[in-house]
Amino acid sequence: MSIICLEDKIVQQATVQVLNQIYEVDFMGFSYGFRPNRGQHDALDAISVGIMKSKVNWVLDLDISRFFDTVEHDWLLKFIQHRVQDKRLLRLINQWLKVGVLDENGHRVTSQIGTPQRCSHFAVTG
Q1: Nearest to 78 by CA among 59, 97, 54, 53
Q2: Does pLDDT of 46 surpass 60?
């Protein structure tokens, strides 16, 4: 991993902490996905307790596979702009979305949908 990538990861983690503070108040107590200090095992424990203490007719298990491959950049940025006014942070998030990924031949590929999942491919510049 390069120094640039490490610096990018530090800035990304700081951004996550800021966005968590902004959006955490919107989540319901029974929401576990992608939240700080909550994971799949916590969700399973809550389901177990709920089933044992209440009459349950059905349980819905939903997987959002490939969700991050289909996020539309423009829609996501408009959604974030409703709660985040800092133009510098919005520009940074936009850069992360547009950075692209490497294909199997090592060529940079950009898209208007999907979120890059690995910093090791590119660092944000500019």
Answers
A1: 97
A2: yes
Helix, strand and coil percent figures for the chain, each rounded to 5:
50, 5, 45
The reported pTM is 0.72
Whole-number Å distance between alpha carbons of 36 and 51: 24
70 within 8 A of 114, measured Cβ to Cβ:
yes
Q: What is the pLDDT of residues 62-94, one digit of tens each?
A: 777 888 889 999 999 999 999 999 999 999 999
Q: 30: Cβ–Cβ under 8 A, 6 or more apart, which residues?
A: 46
Q: Is 96 helix (H, G, I), strand (E, B) or coil?
A: helix
Distance from C-alpha of 115 to C-alpha of 36, rounded to nearest angstrom = 20
Q: Look at residue 69 in the predicted model and tell me its pLDDT.
A: 86
List Cβ neighbours of 17 (8 Å cut-off, separation of 6 or more).
none
